[in-house]
Specification:
The chain is of the alpha/beta class. It contains 13 helices and ten strands. The strands form two sheets. A five-stranded mixed beta sheet has the order 2-1-3-10-4, sandwiched between helices. Strands 7-6-8-5-9 form a five-stranded mixed beta sheet. Strand 6, helix 6 and strand 7 form a beta-alpha-beta unit. The longest helix is centred in the last third of the chain and has 20 residues.
Length: 330
């Protein structure tokens, strides 16, 4: 008995001396430079929600949804937070990517300019100058907006540049409008100038499609099913926690990146994001629970107006999965 007790004690001592299992390192690449919409990821990291799922999360800023999709396809990022219709364009051409959860289920895209310029409807864009960023999500969907509103590219001028150049073009009067998200670029312009911005929302002109979501490489998902489930569980909980504390969630951005904006407009931007999480069909459900009909409608709209290959309509479910999302109450 003494020998047995000694063996057990020795085993316990060895186990106690062993280091705890290391958390899985995960890289999440955002769709763009940090803004209010991204608050849940920072809040989830700050509150230990990812750590509780055994995940050591690194958040990287992106340079457009198309570029982030390419990074995920190439496995230089484990997950991406991107515009899902933009991901569809890449996937139909063979990029090995899939949406593991769709967070924004209506589009925040818009053409926006200073309110005092009185550009309020699509026909007001005629004769104006629009600032764009090649390869970002708005530029991918812009042709669809033109088709839906009867505008032609010859109706206006465009200037191209990166995200900051695009903002500067409007701020300095070199462009009348820019393509942006209602909760992102509008807040940055207001931060810089103190002036109100008026957005012409794509969704108001029949572009009723899903927007941002979490994507991953299809091979990565197959090889790391448990990790994907834990990541989506943590991210779901992070979104739910951030919804309850918008200002604290916005503050977590500044805690991680003091140059990430101003607390008032980050909070306002995040509060503008929350209503986009659910449709009438998903009201009351946990975040990311996109419906098959919503995704099918989005695919059909992209095929009809957005230049997505018609073969996408054969199997809309190839673009997304809800299989890795947590069940209710878990």
């Amino acid at each position: 008995m003494k020998r047995l007790i000694g063996v057990v004690s020795a085993v316990l001592m060895v186990l106690a001396a062993m280091p705890a299992q290391a958390a899985d390192k995960v890289v999440l690449m955002l769709n763009w430079y940090v803004y209010g919409e991204h608050a849940p990821f920072y809040y989830g990291k700050a509150k230990g929600i990812y750590a509780a799922e055994g995940i050591d999360l690194e958040i990287q800023e992106g340079r457009g949804s198309a570029a982030t999709t390419q990074a995920v396809a190439a496995k230089t990022a484990d997950f991406g937070y991107v515009d899902v219709p933009t991901m569809m364009r890449a996937a139909i051409k063979g990029a090995p990517v899939v949406a593991a959860g769709v967070l924004l289920q209506t589009s925040p895209m818009s053409a926006m300019g200073f309110a005092d310029k009185n550009i309020r409807k699509p026909e007001d864009i005629k004769g104006k100058t629009v600032a764009i960023t090649p390869a970002d999500s708005m530029t991918q969907i812009w042709p669809l907006f033109l088709k839906k509103t009867g505008l032609k590219e010859s109706d206006f001028k465009t200037v191209a540049g990166d995200g900051q150049t695009k903002l500067n073009a409007v701020i300095n009067g070199q462009a009348d409008l820019l393509l942006g998200y209602v909760m992102d670029q509008s807040m940055k312009i207001k931060d810089a100038t103190g002036k109100d911005v008026y957005p012409i929302k794509f969704a108001d002109y029949g572009i009723n499609m899903v927007s941002s979501g979490i994507i991953a490489n299809t091979d990565y998902v197959k090889a790391n099913a448990d990790l994907v489930r834990r990541f989506m569980s943590a991210t779901t909980k992070a979104v739910e926690a951030a919804e309850k504390e918008p200002k604290a969630a916005a503050q977590s951005i500044l805690d991680a990146n003091p140059k990430g904006g101003k607390i008032d407009t980050l909070t306002q931007g995040f509060e503008l994001t929350i209503p986009l999480y659910r449709t009438a069909e998903t009201k009351g459900k946990r975040p990311f629970q996109v419906t098959d009909q919503n995704m099918t409608d989005s695919v059909n709209l992209m095929v009809e107006y957005g230049g997505l290959d018609a073969k996408a309509k054969d199997n809309p479910k190839a673009f997304y999965t809800n299989d890795y999302l947590p069940k209710s109450g878990t």
